[in-house]
What does this fold into?
Amino acid sequence: MPCAKSACPLTRLSCKWLMGLLAWGALWIGAAPAQQLPPSEPGGSLLWEAKDWVDPTGTATLQDLLDHPARLAPVVDPGQTYSLGTRGALWRQYHLRRMGGGTSRWRIEFPLPQIDDVTLYEQGPDRRWQARRAGDTVPVNHWSEPGRFPSFSLHGAQDEQVIYVRIAHGNPLAIPVRFVTERDRGQRVLAEYLGQGVLLGVMVLLGVACAGLGWLYSDRVYLWYALQVGVMGLAVAAHSGVAAHFLWPSSGAWADAANGCLPLLSAAMILLLVREVSGIAVHYRRLGWAAVGVGAAGLLVAVVYYFVERRWGLALFGGYILLAIALNLTMAWLTGWRGDVVGHWLFAAYVAPSLSVLVVQLRVHGWLPYGWDTQHLVMGSFLLQGPLLLMALHLRSRDRHQMQVRRQTLVTHDPLTGLLVPHLFQDRLALAIRRARAHGDHAALVVVELANLPSIRKRAGTTQAERSILRCAIKLRGLIKDVDTVCRTGEARFALILEGAHSRQQVSDFGTRLVASGLRSPDGAPQESTLRFHLAACLLGERPQDAAELIPRLEAILEDMPMRSRRVIRFLEPEATVAMPLEPAPGGLHQAVPIR
It folds into this structure.
């Protein structure tokens, strides 16, 4: 069982960061009023008073309110949460007074892209009431002033003015309202779009980079993450109102449903991604299958959310998101608890988005007051998530790549010594023979045998025999060059291709060094642990035969070599050549005269 020391410093750092984020969020929540004081304006300012009335049936009109002004009551708590239901509506009256003779034009804003329907009533120059409408159930193309959230300019120029606002929203809601000048509003819009553009640009870059890595490494997890980043980017764009403004401005129904459907799809894909990256199913099979089931159910929940009433959809959405968050953090924590560093990175990557989503859910349900910082909290958390999750994917990809390399090595290399397998050695030997024939390249083939292996096994056992074989491979690798090739052809036999060996003396020098290294015992080892090598060699230029014939002939030389032979390095004799006589033999045939 992993102990407490298995938790890397990243876990402790993520916990400290989590506590800091909670404290920061608490300060935001406590310091964010629902209505803000009007900004100061050189030469003028705006003072306002608000009264409201909740219409439970949603059938009242502006004329009904004008005929019965006693229905309106002063707003005592600007952060009050209203539960209007699917049919109810909130009417609010604002009494505005311009002070100081300012000339700037003012506007009223409701900085909540998810608000369903907002209608502003203002008297025109002819004293007739004019209505302007916005909200995510209304196509942005039909707004009087398209944007991310409802915003209306106030056309009245008199010092005092009364406006009415009708608000409809199916879920509990604390109404965010702010009055700003046109100049301040323009600067704020540029800053907000800059921040959202940076976030969405980073997410697009992450998606493209991961798609490229997935194609390069043939790794489906990178491709899955690229797809998930795309869906998550659309969810963030929908939450901030950018998507409704630029991507689907003609569809009010989808603009309203996208705030729930896209996060549900993203949460389902994140579940499957975390399960795959963490490898949780290997050690916790039931938890792995639970992640698959909940992830697959997310697709169905997203479809159901589109068609059901928003109050039921909101309950379904909140329950699923909480379940997905719990599963994600559980899988990441268990992976890190087992000592896998990938789990620490996953936990750090998802703790911030999980907290931001929880804050959003609490505010959507009306359990926390609305603050302008909600969108910034969500976007900032997802901006932090990208690099952390990429690091987890990189570590996971590196580990699996190393496993694939080791698996491939077992196919191409001897498991005990790590030397090349015989069939690949035969290919390289055939290539060396072709080079020797075609271009005259120099090379030598050497077969080495550990002659005293049977006595080592009999005296010290199988374990010591395997250690001796491994020592042989180490000594061979220490004496050859990088371009040379070495292979294990039998239990105690090795074959080498010495590139550039053009004389027997070079091969003899190599053999002498190898024999001498085998006679030196390791420090502290008994004298009987020495290695006795026998070598049989040939120059490829002297024996232009097929690769399949050379090694058996050299092994035959080793078989005939006595155990205590003093001549432990022997060569295969060159092929005999024949000379054609100048005079033809009797009968018209040439007689071959062997020359040695």
In short: Residues 374-412 form the longest helix (39 residues). Confidence is low (pLDDT under 50) at residues 1-43, 588-596. The longest strand covers residues 45-55. The domain at 42-184 is CATH 2.60.40.2380 (Immunoglobulin-like).
